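Researcher: Next entry: NAD(P)H-dependent oxidoreductase (Tsukamurella strandjordii).
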Amino acid sequence: MAVLLVIHHTPSPHCQEMFEAVLAGATDPEIEGVEVVRRAALSVTAPDVLEADGFVLGSPANLGYISGALKHAFDTIYYPCLDSTQGRPYGLYLHGNDGTEGASRAVESITAGLGWVQASPHVVVSGKPTKAQLEECWNLGATVAAQLMA
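Model: Predicted structure:
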């Protein structure tokens, strides 16, 4: 069975709404043969990442950058996973008011270094997520998970 690892930092109600929408999409009953594993960014380990076949990353954008928690996750897993996870798909959702472009660039730079492949357009939300934006989050989770189906 394929494994989709959702690495998230969810400190606010808006991030929580986005996280739940991503999970709902990733666990849609039509997606078969994919186990969805969730890990808070501060608790993710290199073995978690090595055992996964794809990833969804979620973070607030703080002061033009990803959260310290997501940065810590990347710092923890980068070198142990560098050669072993190349080519794996990933998706990203961000919530922020200012500086989301910097956060997107940071994730793109780090994932390029890891050799991960963007599987879906990033979902970036400012303020309270709208119904359409939550649907984008659902689609993000479903798209990455569906790419892992055997």
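Model: Note for the record: The mean pLDDT is 96.
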